[in-house]
Amino acid sequence: MKLKIDYFNKFLYLLPFLYLITLSSCRTLDFSENNVLSFSEFDSQYSPSSQDHSFIGKFKLYIQEKGYSGSFKWYPKGDGHEMILLSAFNQIISKVVINDDVIFEHLNHENQEINKIFDKTTIQELKRILYSEYNLEPLTIKTKCCDILIKEYFKLKENTFYTPKKITIRQDQFQLTLILNS
Fold this sequence. Notes:
Elements: H1 2-28, E1 35-38, H2 39-45, E2 55-63, E3 66-77, E4 80-87, E5 92-98, E6 102-107, H3 112-117, H4 120-130, E7 139-142, E8 147-155, E9 162-170, E10 174-180
Parallel strand pairs: 1-7
Antiparallel strand pairs: 2-3, 2-10, 3-4, 4-5, 5-6, 7-8, 8-9, 9-10
């Protein structure tokens, strides 16, 4: 009987210690929200980077109940850039040329829902977001059409700054996630 009481007393002595450990571990968790900026604030706070590199990756898109996935390519071409979305079967869904103006060269008529989410302003804002210098803080950018979340980054070999690895563009009607390869 004495042995059970000794264990109980030792447990009572450990209880405040366990309580302090629990409180200190909860204190170190980060429940803070992303840094939220308007697009104009983002434009003034984050420096543009060189626009001579390409981005290749995957995309996931949900429009209401329907889901799409495939490849994403963004690369310099001539005096501008070109963005291509390819289906899982490597068929062009959307091809956009971005110069001073945004020109939609190829729009797949079978996937009109996808083509509706890309307007000229969204494409120009995405270009500015892709070609900017970042630190490693999560970031939310509020634009006229949608919210753009950046939570993960990678460093290109030739750069000293970070580039978004995962970009999520959210609106009431759709959610597009771009996962870029390093």
